Amino acid sequence: MKEGVNGVALSVFLFFFLAVTVMGFWASRWRRAENAQNLDEWGLGGRSFGTWITWFLLGGDLYTAYTFVAVPAAVYAGGAAGFFAVPYTILCYPLVFTFLPRLWSVSHKHGYVTSSDFVRGRFGSRGLSLALAVTGILATMPYIALQLVGIQAVLDVLGVGGGDSANWFMKDLPLLIAFGVLAAYTYSSGLRAPALIAFVKDALIYIVIAVAIIYIPLKLGGFGEIFHKAGEAFAVTNKDTGKPRGALVTGPDAQWAYATLALGSAMALFLYPHSVTAVLSSKNRNVIRRNTTILPLYSLMLGLLAMLGFMAVAAGVKVKNGQLAIPQLFEDMFPDWFTGVAFAAIGIGALVPAAIMSIAAANLFTRNIYKDFLKPDATPEHEAKVSKLASLLVKVGALVFVLTLDKTVAINFQLLGGIWVLQTVPALVGGLFTRWFHRWGLLAGWAAGMIYGTWRAYATPSATQDHFGNTNVIPLIGEKGYIGLTAFAVNVLVAVVATLVLRAVKAPDGVDLTRPSDYTADAGEPGVVTELPPATAGVPGGH
Amino acid sequence: MPEPHGQPAARPVAPPPADRARATATASATPLIVAGICLAIPFAAMLWVDSYARVSPAFIGIPFFYWYQMLWVLLSTLLTVVAYVLVRRRERLRKGGEQQ
User: Fold this and answer.
1) ipTM confidence score
2) Does residue A515 lie within any of the structural domains?
3) Which residue ranges does the record annotate as region Disordered (chain A) (predicted)?
4) Cβ B5–A262 below 8 Å, yes or no?
5) How many angstroms separate the most distant Cα atoms in chain A?
6) Taking the C-alpha atoms of B13, B15, B21 and B26 in order, what is their torsion angle to the nearest 10 degrees?
């Protein structure tokens, strides 16, 4: 690791950071509506985004800075097992194609802002809706915290993290500034800010990946040489565990884990509140379908990115903290100015999802906790105000999380978050297709899945600690698999049995406010609210 | 929720008469089944890990395990495009049919 501050890289990094800050504040004037004081405007960008904006927004949202750091870091640490991210992102799009257009339609017909809004309307149960909202918020908070970890990794390698010698305030000052700025423009511009910044973020990321995937192998002697060296490095036995460090190909005993991790993660990805927020901000249902055919471009990029993990091994990058492997590889390989570009890509890559996630969590709080339980008569203006404040609180919470607790805590919670979000599938996705489940049955299934998943994850040792592993033996099958998916099976089983029992004893069923035709309604049809600001659509700063 | 803007609800553009004649005939479930199969194929391919858990043949030095999965990003995208076209065409036909 080079000592001191890398001046050229830092200047380039700061340049991009300032540029997106200006964009973030200006975004409040972009495609502005007549009346901006409601959640549809602040929290969903006026539900007006077309195919390309949605593509950038979802890409910026789902492929976060943490992804860019963590996926290659997993490959760097253990080889093939970390590559499950690729089948994972392959499998999520056919799923999205099947169920999200239905969620879009019913949400537009009834003015739902969050997925919990839909569950409340479908099953007539505030309790179930609250359970899902709390799950969503709990899963999102550590995810935001991890975005900060991504920025921190970049700042550390740049040499402005202060190292161990600086006092805590100086050490964390750059991070505090970055987050203060983010909080300010999210507050003033809402979802429009990350939507606009996502253009810059994705452009930078694509450039960096394209350059890295050509330039670094040239320097290291080609892919054959890279995988040869990586294979040798992975074959070396770890003295502590007595097992080799990793493998180039998943072994026969790891295949169930590989497949279940890919499937379980794919099912959960689009149920995260920030995915739902981005999806509901699109202007019609075909925008979503069309996006499932162009979003895989990011999956391809993710695959190439994962290759960087092998390059870091082959290049002999040695870091104590695996999360620093890729930033360090960039600094070792690239000229200083391009290191700055690459780091800006990661840093801005953290800002976009952090903004969307905090908006999504704030919407959940406002709609499904504040309005449902505390102040049922809140006006749209009041909702928007509460949501803006909640987005600030969520970010402060994430910041405190990162600054006071160990990083591994955030990572553990993020892992639990994935397991938890998966437990919302029966109510949400099930509810989109059938009203057969009983609301209390779904609640019982959710509780069973949450408890089972959390308990198993806690009882499972991971590679680096005694708790919070993500794969363990699946009961009845006897192979190791993703705990989240096993918990999901438990969840469905409990929900089915409980529904049968509740129907048999004629437990009161909630009122369903939706009709079958609501699930296929599209923009432009009677009763579907079109919120495109009429005269100013597509004209930036039209007012 | 704000009220819908005063514009009259735009009706979907009616398909040309020739298409409309075909509407009743084509708006069957078959395209949906084909679309469903297209969307299911990637699951079979990706979850069957044993079918691709090997090193050779390598492609420009990249082991089979990796380039094969990346290839499936493209294949699954093509399958999704087919499903999209089928579903869209069926929706248009159905809406055209409703207008008569």
Assistant:
1) 0.83
2) no
3) 522-543
4) no
5) 72
6) -90
